[in-house]
Amino acid sequence: MKNRNLYLEAVQNIPDEVKRETRLTFAIADKIASLLHQKNLSQKDLALKMGKSEAEVSVWLSGQHNFTLRTLAKLSSALGTDIVAV
């Protein structure tokens, strides 16, 4: 019970902007994965299109990567559709 309380307390103390950032990075990763699936592309295919390693694409899809605008633009070009709309 004590561990659960510590966990809940820790989660409650996460700043709102960190929660939002986490949601956004996972949403972007999910969108990329969905587009790969729709286009019948593998991580390797995307890596080749972008001149990146499969390992880097894997990190992107983990939901833990802090995407730059440049990377998002390159991904959008490689996949032929916008990753993020404003």
Label the overall shape.
Answer: elongated
Helix/strand order: HHHHH
**Total strand segments:** 0
CATH topology: 434 Repressor (Amino-terminal Domain)
**Averaged pLDDT:** 92
Structural class by helix and strand composition: mainly alpha
The CATH architecture can be named as Orthogonal Bundle
Helix amount, in percent? over 70%
**Total domain modules:** 1
For CATH, the homologous superfamily is named as lambda repressor-like DNA-binding domains
Q: What's the main sheet like?
A: none
Radius of gyration: 16 Å
- Give the oligomer, counting copies of the same chain as homo and different chains as hetero: single chain
CATH class: Mainly Alpha
In terms of DSSP E residues, the strand content is under 5%
Low-confidence stretches: none
Distance between the termini: 43 Å
